[in-house]
Structures are given as C-alpha cells and as structure tokens.
Amino acid sequence: MEAVVVVEWLAKVGDNLKAGDIVVVVETAKAATEIEAPASGVLSEIRADVGTEIEIGGLLGIIGDADAKRAAVPAAASVAAIDAPPPVASAPVILTPVKVEAVSDRIVASPLARRIAALNGIDLATVLATSPSGRIKVRDIEMTLKAAKPVAAPAVASRIVAEKAEGDASGQLYMQRRAGDGMPIVFLHGFGSDSLSWRPVLTALRSRNTTVSIDLPSHGRSPFMPIADVRALGAAVSAALEGEGLDQIHLVGHSLGGATALAIAEAGRIEIRSLTLISPAGLGAEIDGSFIDGFSRATRKESLEPWLRRLVADESLINPAFVSATMQSRENADLRDAQAELADRLFPDGTQAADFRQAFARLGMPQKIIWGIQDSIIPWKHALAGTGKAGLHLLPAIGHMPQFEAAGAVAAAIDELVRATA
Q1: More confidently predicted of 20 and 397
Q2: What are the Cα distances from residue 145, in Å, to 67, 123, 142, 156, 395?
Q3: I need a surface site. Which of 104, 120, 366, 393 has the fewest CB within 10 A?
Q4: Each residue's pLDDT tens digit, 360-396
Q5: Same domain flag for 244 and 119
C-alpha cells in the first residue's frame, strides 16, 4: 500500500482525546482501518479532510497539549503501517510530518469505482461526484453509464455484480481492523447489516486486543457471492481469515453471524479461543420470516422503518436519522437482490435451514450466549439448546440487537470471556 483515503473523522477540532481513542478512519482498496490517538490532549488541527488521499506516513492531524490547545512539540496522528503494533503507552510516538502530494489536481475515487470506470472506458474527469467529500463512488459511475447508454444500463448492473462475484475464489472479504495487542477478536454481523454495526461495542470494549469486523459475502462492501448455505458462508469467512493469517481468534457473531461463527467452529479450519454468540441463528427452526422478506424488499424509508422497529425493544431508538442511514446503506438494488436470494436459501419458507445444535454441543472452547428476552426475530429460548457449558446472559427489555441496545453489557461480557481465556 502506498496511500489511503480518509473516510471519517470521529473527533473534531477542540475535542479532548485520550491515548488510544479512535480518532479517524482511513480506507485502502481492501479494508477500513481505525487510527488511534497516539497521545492524550486536544485535537488542535485536522490536516487531511474526508476524501483526501494521503501517503502512508503522511500527517493526518495534530494533538496538542490539553492546556495550551497546541503543544510546542505535538504528537502526530499519522497513517502508520496498517498492521503495525501500536506504540507503547509510556512512550507516545512523535512523528515528523511527511510531505503529501497535493490532491487538488488529483481525482479521488473508490477502488471499485476506478475499476468499473476503467472496464467501461470512462474518464473519471468527466464523472460528477455526488458525495459531499467529492469522492467518486460506484453510484456516480453507474449514473454516468446510464446517462451515456440508457439502454445498456441493466447489462452494466449485471456486469458489476459479475465483477464482484469473481472475487469468490480469492476469499477477499471487506474487513475493518483496529490494531491492538493479544489474540484478535473477530466480529460477524447479522443478515442485512455490515461491519459498521459493531462500532458501539468496539467503543465500549476494554480489551486492547486487535479487532477485525468483517462484511459477510453479499453485505456491505464485500463481493456478491453465490452462497448455498450457512456452512458455505462459514467457509468463505474462514478462507478470508486464513488469507489474512488469522488462524487463532476470539469469535463473536450476531444472528446470521452467530450461525456463521458456529459453522466456522464446526469446520475447525480456524482455532477459536472463545466463542460469543449474540441472538444467534442456527439453534432452532423458528425465525420471523415476514421480517426477512419485508426487510429485503424495502426500497424506501417508509417501507423499511416498520421492519427496523421489530429489531429492538425500545422503538424510540429507530429515529429518522437511523432509518435514513440504514436506507442509504441499502440503496444499491443489486445488493438488495443479492441478499434476497441469500435469504431464500438460508431461510426457506420463513424457517432456519441450518441446525447447529449437535455441533454446538461438541464444541469445547469457552462460550457465551447473549440474548434479549424481547427478541421478536429469533426466540430467546433457542439459547436453551446450549449444553450448560456456555455462560448465558439474558437481557431484560432488550430485543434482537443487544449490541445496539445494550452495547456496554455486550462489551463487558466479551471482555470477561477474552480475559478469562488469555
């Protein structure tokens, strides 16, 4: 890697930071990485705005002294080697700013957008970016293609899906990695979600382990892949983990991600040091099939909101901003179609096709099950399929998404299991 693109600042100028706080998210062609504050103090300056492409080693921002707003010798939050270990807390790293090539004359575009543009002979200089950051995304390329060749638009959409599907053999799924110490903790999201859904838990997590959040196939920014069943889903994730050298991990899975975690543990390709299942699929036949169907088909905020409310016990959490953000992440019709096809295979006729109860009984690693008692998607009593080896956390007044409604309690349970297994 030679450069990354700044995709999100989680702090603003003037914010007080502690060493280790997540400050900014940068993106490579393959994954997003969270950059931590190397020292405590005040974020006194942002040097790389959202959408800026910056060389590895370049200066992102400056953390100044908490009293003076800017220290005489500031600590620099910079793009270090993506997989490098974090600096020790007792010796904050002070990096010399590296000259970064000016981006005013450069066209900033996502890697996939660049590839699709090249395949179709599109000059990126002619593409209008709709993103506030000015970064060209896939949707901008699609709009350009439709404007130039409206009749061929459906074929173009299919071509994009085919291009993504070709990544099947490589096992390259989209991952967000936060560098740390100790055994990596891998997080697998549920159906229709993505790796960003783990942010509340990652923020509350006390463990300083490396964390890896994965977009499942046909979700988020991972390839659209023909998946026959949950075990094939587990095989795809296992291949991606092996490709990253992650052969010993702590594993956390929610809902469909929970069933995928069970498939990974059953296959035994990856050594699972601890297993945390949150409202998991795979431990019984019942599931709210109407939710799966309605959520998959929703194309507008008005049709999506009622289904989102089924996910939680406290419906006030499903505010207009949450609905808009969820709809925006699902605006790609190809993504919705791929997930609808996946749901038809995994949950035929509103039933869970995969049954991991016997496999679960054979697993020997430390385990926890976390479930909201007011879960209306998968009955919490499926947790009783456990053999008594798993610690059971039943959360009152919580629905299908404990990691959203009770992030602190979920993070504490994961911390406890990880520490006990260390």
Answers
A1: 397
A2: 53, 11, 5, 8, 49
A3: 104
A4: 999 999 999 999 999 999 999 999 876 678 899 999 9
A5: no
> Residues of 208-239 as b/e, b for ≥16 C-beta within 10 angstroms?
ebbbbbbbbbbbbbbbbbebeebbbbbbbbbb
Question: CA geometry: angle at 307 spanning 303 and 308, to 5°?
Answer: 110
Distance CA 66, CA 3 (A): 30
Any domain includes 217: yes
**Residue 216 or 169, more confident:** 216
pLDDT of 220 > 60? The answer is: yes
- The domain total for the chain is 3
Share of the chain above pLDDT 70, in %: 80
At 313, is the pLDDT very low, low, confident or very high (cuts 50, 70, 90)? Answer: very high
Given a cut of 90, is residue 134 above it in pLDDT?
no
Give the integer Cα–Cα distance in Å for 60 and 347: 45
Residues 6+ apart with CB under 8 A from 7: 25, 26, 27, 32, 50, 51
Angle between helices 153-165 and 111-119 (to 10 degrees): 120
Output the pLDDT for position 165.
36
Residue that has been written with the tokens 């996910």 in this structure: 311
Q: Tell me whether residue 284 is in a domain.
A: yes
β 41-46/16-17 pair status: antiparallel
- Under a CB-based contact definition with an 8 Å cutoff, are residues 280 and 254 in contact? yes
| Single pTM value for the model | 0.65
Q: Tokens in use for 105? A: 């004359």
Q: Which of 168, 189, 213 is the last residue of a domain?
A: 168
3-state secondary structure of 46: strand
Range of the domain at 122: 111-168
C-alpha atoms less than 13 angstroms from C-alpha of 43 in its C-beta half-sphere: 24
Tell me: the pLDDT tens digits for 138-162?
Answer: 777 777 877 764 333 333 333 333 3
Q: Is residue 266 part of a domain?
A: yes
Find tokens 């008692």 and name the residue: 373
